Amino acid sequence: MTIDTAAALARLRGLHRDGALAERFDEVGPLLAAMSAEDAARAARLLARADLDTARELHPSLPAVRVTVTGHGTLEALRVALVGELARHGYVPSVRLTGFGSYVFELGDPGSELYAERPDLAVCVLDHATVFDEVSVPFTAEDVERVLAGKIALWRGLAARYGESGSGTLVLNTVPLPRLWQARLLDHRSRARLGAAWRRANAELLELGASADRVVVVDVDPLLSSATELSDPRFEIYAGAHLSDALLGAYARELGHLVRARTGRAKKVLALDLDGTLWGGILGDDGVEGIEVGHGPRGEAFRRFQGVAKQLASQGVLLAVVSKNDRDTVLAALRDHPGMLLREDDFVRILADWSPKPVHLRALAEGLNLGGDSVVFADDSVHECAAVAAGVPETVVVHLGGDPALHATTLLADGWFTTTEVTAEDRARTRRYHEEAARSEFLAAAGSAEEFLAGLDVSVRLAPAEPGETARLSQITLRTNQFNLTTERLSPEEVRERAERPGCRVLAISAADRFGSNGLVGALFLRARPDGLVVDNFLLSCRVFARGIEQAVLSAVLHAARDAGFAAVHGRYQPTAKNGKVRDLYPHYGFTPVEEGSRFVHDLVEIVGVPAHLTLHVEGRVVPEASPEALTI
């Protein structure tokens, strides 16, 4: 918001002209974010020709992502658009196309180059030509139905093969039916049969995405609109481009959201302005009765936007108010206005006074124990958006414009909150933060930290992970940054594989106190090897910091390791920009540094005890046995 689109494009072109794109790649994401869609597409064409391998070497702190794209038709437009989308989200991308029409070989042969390069994302683009190329002319609806059945069986088999032998995530898509093919059948009965068969095939694809491990199916239908054509007959015939550049660009946008979700970069907080954003009018001038919400066309548009925010909150997004208004008047509006869909309890924080909004947003992130890059700020004022973009550059800024009917479209366009799976913990998140506010009040009333902890009545459960906890444990690895010893991100399938691997344990940490359950708040990943037990990673939610939980859990693991016959316990710390809080965790609890402060070992002689203020429940065998079977992994 602090640089206009033309200036951003000019800057990026200058970097490209000077051969400095790789060296200054850390500037690319913010520049792309400032551009219009048209200018970002122009910039993507420059980036697609840049030396991004050098950019990865020069910027090791930027996340890198490797994508392989395969399919039936010409897909260069998708490669270019995807490079731009991933760069816009702060990644250093590597996007490779396989040979034209080679997807069956690439996915069907574990010895192919696609398998060898082990991409984070393997994208197989399916189009109507994959079906109609095998339909004879003339044809009937029954002919297409038979070919579709064979294709679904093929695609299922390829997905299963990738699940067995591939890495990362396989992305497929539903296949849109062009009117040009349906119109070749002259009777409505045949058209109806073709449409029904086509929709059944797409439904089977979507079911595959809902049930298969490591497979995501993108539903293409919502990407199509009057402004996004499915294909251009000229490009389809002359260039083998079965899907339009506009549709492939929209597909790339969806893939960008998917990569962000799979690498733990989904946003967690939606901070909302009020006047002109959640209701019409100026609360301070019009009063509670005079604002527009729930009555009249504009009022209904604002109410519907509130419904979108409430829907996001029901799935784990934390809502906050950041408004220049009188707090008491804001609370009165949220409590008493009959048209309001969002109420006071829907928000985890209500920051309403006359302080600058950047100040409020920094306080909001700090109060929630999150980074500013976890927040999306939405406001109808271009001036406030510019102020926040300049004052809190790590926060995503969404300018909603003036028409409330478009607020939802604008907010949801970039999929900032897209996640891999919504868990029970997500659905309870707002309630848990309200309970946390009660804890904070209790802390303020306590005479000391010791008195607070003694009165909190903390209870911790440590046990091997159960199958139903896999999604939440994956989410902890994806979204936890501060108390995360190695920042290794794991999908639900990878968590499940770790839990089932011989000689390994995945431990779930749950906590509760006098104010309620905190739910599943942490995880340990353990592995046996000949010289001892290895803690591959230790993670804990920021909501339960400073309660002695980490000490209790380490005490239990160390004692269990000694009892199981291990000679030592090894730990590793991989520093990141956000996990400095746990730099000294291992030394603090009796581990000795053995490799320049990144690796540690505990000799299991003197083991820290469980804090007196806390009750620990250990269930099941939390460490593997130090047996020959466990040590052969």
From TrEMBL:
* Gene3D superfamilies membership: HAD superfamily/HAD-like (3.40.50.1000), SGNH hydrolase (3.40.50.1110)
Q: Which InterPro entries match?
A: Acyl_CoA_acyltransferase, FkbH_domain, HAD-like_sf, HAD_sf, HAD_SF_ppase_IIIC, SGNH_hydro_sf
- Name of the molecule in the record: HAD-IIIC family phosphatase
